[in-house]
Amino acid sequence: MNKKTEKWLAGFILLFLMILFALLVYFRQNSQDTAILQRIYNNHTLQIDSCDGTKNLFNSPELLEVEYPHNLSLDKQGMATSGRSVRVYEQMRATRLKQMFQFLNPNLDQLCLTQHQITNFVKNNIKDKQDWLNEGYKAREEYKDFGHDGFLFLFKENGEYFVADIYVLATTGGLYVKFYELKKSDNTYFSRENLWVVVPQLN
């Protein structure tokens, strides 16, 4: 084999390896896109009771501290709702807030709970049944001192979508809630994993 052929073969091999590497990166990125959220607690029935709409995230005794969003009118009563089941999904990788919900359903109205339904879930499934709900992260070494990263709930007020981010404080067992406007969340990037997303069960 002459030197010209050797150079051509070496260049061809290098090009082949570069293409192969690019394909591996592409398929890895696309496989990650299908793993934003993963359903957990498949064996538990998580139920929200019937709600008359009188409670919200600002007058709930279960929430010890609320970070009130400025210039928003969210402290209001809602509509009455019947009991329903919900599902819980765990965040598997870093992602943007809006992408997290759109991964489950592009029709965001179907993913919304009312504020009263959210407080009912908090009471029944975070406060009263915290032991089994938290066992998933208590077993993880990296979270044993810090508790869970939080629960995300989508709700709609004044024709706009909002996300309630509710934390269980490991030090006190108390609850803290902060809010995000979904339409302004394009730059809200959740790099921390193990957030849990709670949405209505649709089927």
Q: Give the oligomeric state.
A: single chain
Which stretches are poorly predicted, pLDDT < 50 over at least 5 residues? 135-148
Helicity range: 25-40%
User: Describe the biggest sheet?
Assistant: 8 strands, mixed
The DSSP helix count reads 4
Query: How many runs of DSSP E, i.e. beta strands?
Result: 10
| Radius of gyration, taken over Cα atoms and rounded to an integer in Å | 22 Å
Question: How many domains, as an integer?
Answer: 2
Q: What is the H/E order?
A: HEEEEEHHHEEEEE
Class from secondary-structure proportions: alpha+beta
Measured between the Cα atoms of the first and last residue, the distance is: 66 Å
The amount of beta strand, in percent, is 15-25%
Estimate the global geometry from the Cα principal axes. elongated
Average pLDDT figure? 77
Distinctive features:
203 residues; alpha+beta; 2 domains; eight-stranded mixed sheet; two-stranded antiparallel ribbon; elongated
How would you describe this protein?
Helices cover 30% and strands 24% of the residues. The strands form two sheets. Strands 1, 2, 3, 4, 6, 7, 8 and 10 form an eight-stranded mixed sheet that branches. The protein has a two-stranded antiparallel ribbon with strand order 5-9. It is elongated, with a radius of gyration of 22 Å. It has helices at 3-33, 97-104, 115-127, 130-138; strands at 37-40, 46-48, 65-66, 84-91, 95-96, 151-157, 160-168, 175-181, 189-190, 196-200. The model is unreliable at 135-148 (pLDDT under 50). It has two domains: 1-34; 37-200, no CATH class. The protein contains four helices and ten strands, in the order αβββββαααβββββ. With 203 residues, the chain is an alpha+beta fold. The protein starts with a helix and ends with a strand. Strand 7 (160-168) and strand 8 (175-181) form a beta hairpin.
